[in-house]
Predict the structure.
Amino acid sequence: MKPFDVDLFVIGGGSGGVRAARIAAGYGASVMIAEEYRMGGTCVIRGCVPKKLYVYASRFADDFADAKGFGWTLPGKPTFDWPTLVAAKEREISRLSQIYRNNLLNAGVQVVETRAEILDANTLRLVSDGRTIRAGKILVATGGTPVLEPSVPGVELAISSNELFDLPVFPNRLLVIGGGYIAVEFASLFARLGSKVTLAFRGENVLRGFDDDLRDGLRTELQHAGVEILPGTLPKRIEKRADGLVVTLTGDETRTFDQVMLATGRRPHTLGLGLENAGVECDHAGAVKVDAYSRTNVASIYAVGDVTNRVNLTPVAIREGHAFADTEFGGKETAVVHAGIPTAVFTTPEIGTVGLSEQEARKIFDIVDVYAASFRPMIATLSGRPEKTIMKIVVDGQTDQVLGVHILGYGAGEMAQLLGISVKLGATKADFDATMAVHPTAAEELVTMRTRSARYVRETLDAGPGAAIG
């Protein structure tokens, strides 16, 4: 008798799990994947994809404003219809979810639409019908889930980003709690769609961990868009009344909103998976502990993506899933390097960044050179909008190697993807300088900046972040 029903069982049909299943099947493995909701996971169904669609929708507000400066006359004031956007989004993510499913089936993967629970190191139970499946290897790829603060009375009245995509009524008054990338993205896009947005967070500034100049620049741009910023502020109580949700904030001030969205973090989605039945170790946050090859302490069980809480980005989960399949079924031992990862924050204007921030570089390198530029993008010149583009290049002052590049501005995400190649290859500032500019573009500033705006010698001189930014 075959000792196992399948060579690989994948729990979770998100980006990491789907990639691992397809690649493993391509190597000849028999694979089964279980997904209890919709194929595609957080990114496709309630994350990156619908968010980017809503960001595009919100940017038409600026496009209409710019059009007048370029000679266009619009017939009346443009109006926005929320149900139309929600329905269009739903059609697109349903299409993408079906593509994910079809790709799995075409690869020979068995797809089961149910929750799966681990019974032991090689056995799972399908909750829908109680069947047990024996698998040679088990891959946990269940992602993350929003964190709600249980100590706040009335927190059950708040929503997460999951629910915000499908609200039946547009929130004209929206309170966003949090200062991370999810919070600022939704604050930015809903303000442009017409909501009166208040952004409240615990710290002193948004986007902790990003370069300080970009944090300051984004905060200014959010305020230009009409977002009210409340640093050092959190909800103490939420109450439902006839005119909306009454929120008591730090300092006992009360305000009324149509919706309150909590974006104060996510946790690994490991509750109820049965990991303890197999003795799989998790950390204090519930993340599955893994090594560089996504192996847990149990020889037959692996984990990739947000459930491991390494770097919680969709492309990282995909790379980890692919590397797992290459290693375990393709005979090509592959570890994922979680450093120098380019990323974007899809506010308006957006952030694109790769490598070390100026503040991080100062802690590591003896001499840090900073090259920076700030200017109004050409698209905003004729309309007179106050939008600014900020660019920074952080350089090792001893070797001339580029340590990080940080951009706030139109197209920053696209630039970060290409800059990621340069930084990964170890490009120097001299390499940037030797590259011919493409004119007229915003990106040409990256190869034309010649004057140091800050030079920092560790323990001797601190010129301050972005000293020459105007």
